[in-house]
Amino acid sequence: MASHIILPPDDADGEHRREDGEGEEEEHEEEAQGGGAAPPEQAAKAALPFSAMCVRISRDSYPNLRALRNASSVSLADAAYVKISEGDFGYVLDDVPHLTDYLPDIPTYPNPLQDHPAYSTVKQYFVNEDDTVPQKVVVQKNSRRGVHFRRAGPRQRVYFDTDEVKACIVTCGGLCPGLNTVIRELVCGLSHMYNVSKIFGIQNGYKGFYSSNYLPLTPNSVNDIHKKGGTVLGTSRGGHDTKKIVDNIQDRGINQVYIIGGDGTQKGAYEIFKEIRKRGLKVSVAGVPKTIDNDIAIIDKSFGFDTAVEEAQRAIDSAHVEACSAENGIGLVKLMGRYSGFIAMYATLASRDVDCCLIPESPFYMDGEGGLLQYIERRLKENKHMVIVVAEGAGQDLIAKSIATSDQQDASGNKLLLDIGLWLTHKIKDYFKSKKMEMTIKYIDPTYMIRAIPSNASDNVYCTLLAHSAIHGAMAGYSFTVGMVNVRVTSTRNKVRITDRMWARLLSSTNQPSFLSQKDIDEASEADRLANRPPLPTVTSHRAAESFEQSASTSSNGEI
Q1: What spatial distance separates the first Cα and last Cα of the chain, rounded to whole Å?
Q2: CA distance linking residue 445 with residue 477, whole number of Å
Q3: How many alpha carbons fall within 13 Å on the CB side of residue 55?
Q4: Whether the Cβ atoms of residue 39 and residue 2 lie closer than 8 Å to each other
Q5: Which DSSP category does 409 fall into?
Q6: Catalytic positions
Q7: Which of 74, 116, 169, 290 is paired with 61 by a 20 to 30 Å CA distance?
Q8: pLDDT tens-digit map of 153-209
């Protein structure tokens, strides 16, 4: 997508206002902060480490947008489009692309929120255009000012007149708790905050742009959909044809496109924006990232994640009951997590009944001294039962060594995984059979049960924040992807960091071995270091370059 915008929640809001001496009492979405990126038709500047609680609208979380990670990797063509501004004391502003970058003469309009009764008690309606927020919150006294982002939220002037807005909403990829809530809040937000009446749903994913009729949406028609799982618009994988999609956007007069989907969907949204800009269309593209695995880079948490962790605990509870009710009982639960084991890790930490958690980021081995099978045997002799949680992407290298695999992919381009739960079940049974030791194992796969449920209260609130943030950004003329950043930002897929204290907390909770060699630890530490290097803008002066180096050497990861 095309920009970042950052929005701190309540506690950060208050602190920021006190420091500024403003004493504002604004809504979540009004306390926004923003960071910039390059125009979307070029590879953009990679993400920056970030150590504050915030919501960030960003487009640089995908592989084709990482070219500007380091100065050595920046081509002259890419560098020409990086929007970097400098100030005193090492201040660097990573600025935000806008409709006016290629349509400089489009008119502006007063923001309807200035007359909205819900905002009548807010002391400051709109974000000051000169407001910026530092990339790093935890700094040392000698730190340079470093990288800043433009603050986001409702602007005093918007680039779409209420009567001209024609918005559409599409959901793509797999199901996730909260999809209907995001749809509802986009429709209600556009209607209630900006008086938009022309809102349409695109049915069955990207292909719905050119293969089916658009579905009119009103606040009444979406009023109760947040109580249901799935998506009322339907969804599908694949079907992305950039030219056909933009042709239909242009033919139907759509000027705001809200795209809800995962990694592949947001890549598609970026391609749509590039084509829109190429044609010079006055269209904002707003992406709301959806991934139950929580594995999209830039953001620390995607909507539906809290619900997934909560529901996963029910499966773990069932596995624990089964394990405790049998002699040498083992309950094995497979959870979502193709590349990242966040659901497995957080569900394990929340449950306290899990004896071993296996995730894709942390290699393990089955046989020999200190292996998984030996640990299971020891645990059963000590406790007479055991619960194992495994993320679906864990151990795929081990399966590949014992079973012939193919490189088949689904419609979204994801490699089809083999069932690690079923494979582990057979391996464990064979091991204990060879040991002549009685045991019982129950394998539970709650994947589709978790995907299909409605979002919980926490996710409903978060979905509202994401939807309203997307609306404010689109009305202000930006194109972007919105999401929350709690600790830091990297330019790669969001993964569990086995060098962080959170993983150490899990190991302490389960008392399981780490299964890691020193080589594994060294490689993880080096990958972590490289992922968190600040990008070096190629168009900055030596003074700004020094500030980047200084911030890299003195930054804290902000972990608690």
Answers
A1: 31
A2: 44
A3: 31
A4: yes
A5: B
A6: 293
A7: 169
A8: 788 899 999 999 999 999 999 899 999 999 999 999 999 999 999 999 999 999 999
CA 419 to chain centre: 25
How many Cβ atoms are within 10 Å of 112's Cβ, its own excluded?
17
Q: Could you give phi then psi for residue 399, rounded to 5 degrees?
A: -65, -40
For residues 448-458, give the mean pLDDT: 92
What is the residue type of 504? A
The answer to whether the beta carbons of residues 28 and 465 sit under 8 Å apart is: yes
**Residue 70: what residue type?**
N
Element (H, E) at 314: helix 305-324
- The Cα 95–Cα 461 span in angstroms is 29
**Residue 352 clears pLDDT 60, i.e. is over it:** yes
CA 190 to chain centre: 23
Give the number of C-alpha atoms closer than 13 A to the C-alpha of residue 95, restricted to the C-beta side: 13
Put simply, whether the predicted model's pTM sits higher than 0.90 gets the answer no
Nearest in space to 193 (alpha carbons), one of 111, 122, 253: 111
Average pLDDT over residues 294-305: 74
Q: Which two tokens stand for residue 251?
A: 């033919």
- Encoded amino acid at 368, one letter: G
Which residue type does 379 have? R
CA dist 474 and 299 (Å) reads 19
| Cα R_g (the chain), whole angstroms | 24
> What type of residue sits at position 193?
M
DSSP 411-450: TTSPBPPP-HHHHHHHHHHHHHHHTT---EEEEE--HHHH
| Those residues with Cβ within 8 angstroms of residue 250's Cβ, 6 or more apart along the chain or in another chain | 279, 281
Location of structure tokens 């009548």: 120
